[in-house]
Specification:
The protein is an alpha+beta fold. Helices cover 29% and strands 30% of the residues. Strand 5 and strand 6 form a beta hairpin. Bound molecules: 2-amino-2-deoxy-6-O-phosphono-alpha-D-glucopyranose (GLP). 2-amino-2-deoxy-6-O-phosphono-alpha-D-glucopyranose (GLP) binds next to helix 5, strand 6, helix 7, strand 8 and strand 9.
Amino acid sequence: MSAADQIFSMLKESSQSGAPLYLQLRRSIEEAVNRGLIGPGDALPSERDIASKADISRVTVRKAVQDLVKGGILVQRHGSGTFVAPRMERVEQSLSRLTSFTEDMARRGMNVRSVWLDRGLYAPSPEEMMVLGLSSTELVARVARLRIANDTPLAIERAALSASVLPDPEAIGSSLYAALETTGNRPVRAVQRISATNLGDADARLLEVPPGVAGLQIERISYLASGKVIEFTRSVYRGDAYDFVAELRLTGPGEELRP
Ligand code: GLP
């Protein structure tokens, strides 16, 4: 069955629902993608073909397709048409280990690279002064990178550290934690806060997803064994790429939670 036929047969199934036509068509295309009847990279039939086959107006088809492009289900390539978006292989990430992006990806056999968005020494913001314990005369080292695994951009990470631990942000190689390790400043503990976000235009463009799609905002404050804060990082991860996994244990009354 052709892609147009698959969508059309889904549409016939939903035509009893009484929902507006564009919504029925949108759900039919989504359903055909979810059931694997049309797969990642497959071309969608032209607007005209869908309209004539389903006997609906091209305006209705366009509205349904635009919604699916916005939702990241379809992608439009200028001049060549509309396609089912490539499916992300989700990365499962434990929430109990303090590892670096480079280590996480290497463990999965993925190639890591970064695009530098910013690195340099700056006067600290009030928030950086508070979190990192800096005075207004000290400098903060800022390191912002787009993190890419197997050619897919996964996250934007913006780290701030005291310039006394990272005097030359230009000198970091591919891994911040490896650089900190060489000076005995690799963190041993961190507190991480994860919240939902809708990606803004600039971040969405870097992560190659439509603006407004779901993402994860992650804030990590890392500590040395001495208790000193070493890193304050804000990251934005693609929502379709990550599953954060935490192990939960039942503790009895008065029982300590073992690490
Ligand atoms: C993780 C953390 C960041 C940390 C980074 C270091 O992704 N979320 O807070 O800065 O790892 O990674 P790398 O050593 O690869 O630069």
